[in-house]
């Protein structure tokens, strides 16, 4: 990845430079419009901010330790995490249910990490972004040398992931509000169509829509979308 992708960010900053870099990174993250774009920006920023990081990915891990990759910097990460997707993971991931950090010092020495060592990835630092009873969201940085991620790298990584978590929550709320507004508009349009078709008022049309949703076991927004779509193509 080209260091020039984020020209305002020094690579692997320290001291006051780190505080300024985290501020710029936070601004970059909050400018994203969706949770997915937030995650894509986060993995690219991680390679610039986290000392020693050469690659990064963000994954979801469920209670059965099954992994699904959400964002990645390059095909090396995508290949590494894809080989673990849908399979139970080694103990490294298990640590993240009780600890915000898990590290692999050397994939060639640690058992269960043949996939990483085969791709030339020797070190890994995983940092928890989100956690609930069912799943984790985790950012993992990778390096080609062993023992890269020391305590300083971990502290910087935790500061960075705190900013990522806040930005991700904000993007999620924005997406939910946008969806709610879209759903409201769809239901309003569907109600208007039923009023016109059946010669009834708005309350009766909405009640008819709700009854149909319950009868057909279809979400209200999906039924409204179907009615509006059929009306527009008629």
UniProtKB/TrEMBL annotation:
The keyword Transcription regulation applies. Keywords: Kinase, Transcription, Transcription regulation, Transferase. Signal peptide: none annotated. Residues 167-228 form the ANTAR domain. Pfam families: ANTAR, GAF_2. This is Transcription antitermination regulator. It comes from Streptomyces lomondensis.
